[in-house]
Amino acid sequence: MKSELEVNEMMNTKCRVVAVSLMICLFLVVLSPLLMGPENYGRIAFVSSRDCDWEIKIMDSDGSNIRGLTDNFTNDSNPSWSPDGSMIAFVSERDGNEEIYVMDNNGEQVKRLTYDPASDVSPAWSPDGTKIAFVSDRDGNEEIYVMNTDGSNQVNVTNNPFNDEEPTWSPDGTKIAFVSDRDWKDEIYVMNADGSSQENVSNNSALDLHPAWSSDGSMIAFVSDRDRNWGIYTMNSNGENVRRLTHNQHMDSRPNWSPDGSLIAFDSNEDGSNIFLMDSDGGNRTRLTYTDTVDFGPSWSPDGEKIIFCSCNDWGYQVYTMDSDGKNQMRISNIPLSHLCPVWSPDGTKIALELDTSGEFRTPDICVMNADGSNLVNLTNSNAADLNPAWSPDGTRIAFSSNMSGNSDIYIINIDGNDLVNLTNSPDYENCPAWSPDGTRIAFSAEGIFVMNVDGSNVERLTDYPSGEWGPSWSPDGKKILFCSLRRGDYDIYVMDADGSNVVQLTTNPAKDMYATWSPDGKKILFSSDRDGNEEIYVMNSDGTDQKNLTNNPAIDWCPSWCCYSLSTEELTCSTEPTPSTEPTPSTEPTPSTEYLSTFLLIIIIFAVITSTIIFFRPGKSSKQ
To answer: The pTM is what?
Structure first.
């Protein structure tokens, strides 16, 4: 029989085993949510018209969790993931024509890469993440270009008189597949990454489009109408062993391999336009999205778990993400309306602005909201274009311009929407009202700068030039007026005495310098300028010296408005981020307080487990026999 000492030792051993097992299990339970966080799931990028213009969306690789990444009233398309999944290159028309942009995978930090009046489209990252191939017609026809990921060193690598498009890199980065009509019809070509050794690999009498490399580089998926309707095909990278994968009457297009090569995502016009998934041999065709609009251009995240796409169904084209099975479709972008020309109330508690309620910015209204964006109230709510809101010095009324009478006139209205009064009522185009600091007069534009009493009487012309002059702004002491003029051939900021005398030009840049406004202490002037390629907010001294760029980002920043107190020079030079006037993009990241709480609880649990384990590991006392 075993002694009492042996029995005690066996019990202690069992307790130790149980304690260690419990500790391991508890660690797994506690840490599993962290190990399986959202950042460890793959995603697919795609383009959709569900929000009425083309936008970029992402989704999980099962089709769930669709979110919009871009949100504006121009088209955003052609999303392409960087190899590490941290960034997405895409095409946008937000600056007037199609250009290549990049953004973080949550839709933030948008940066413009190409600046050319031609159309730049179809970005494709090199596997090492150092290059982006794209298509441009800047040389008169569509060619394949390659550039660094910061937009530098843009090189034409195809350089022939025919159209070359749809570049896609081989997994090892040594080759680029593309589409060309140099044989009088669209065919799939393969070339070295520097443009050498261009070879037709599809070589068929039909049209062959949308090449996509398999993950190991041995095969290329593509689209062809060689069997009388558009279907998905695969072939070896040298053009051999062609095989059709989809067999139906629908148009199947834009194949995209999953990172492990086992699946192919594509779009189809079955029941509209939706995203589908199939095995790499064409089996198990599965529908991921179900909309009555247009979902297209699926793109996998590098880890293969999510899909990003573009869609349109609630307001404008927005960017969505979803899981690879179609679940968790979520819109990332969240700007349902355009908000322009925000102006602070004198006490800084409210903001007046132009609100686009039509979606085309043809009939914006004058609205007022709290400074935090809450309690938005539409004051005009008309079918006219109501623009240029300006607060009275006592904060009780707003002057604005509107064409509600058939031509553009100056109006004033109480901030509760009552007592609307037309002040000018003339056939001239009158706009940009500005109150004098004492509230007795209003300056405005009408092919020159004018002033009048607040009841519309005693109209006086201050400038008399045939070129356009507009945007008056009174100095805080009421002695001077800023304005913008074309009198020297380009848009510049001028200042004059309040009676129209002593006109001085403050900016002399060939770019557009406009929308000038004084600081509350009269020592600084804010204005917008496109001198760096797009419209940004600048500040200068009241005499025009020391002009500095404050915003410095690829978006359009304009219509600056000072708040009710003077900002120090340090605040001006350091606070370069614009205050958002729209709802923030929804975030899936935990808030800091949640992260701290989770960490605190985890530490407590670990401490408790370790303490219990130490107690169990202590050797038991044995009695002497």
So the answer is: 0.46
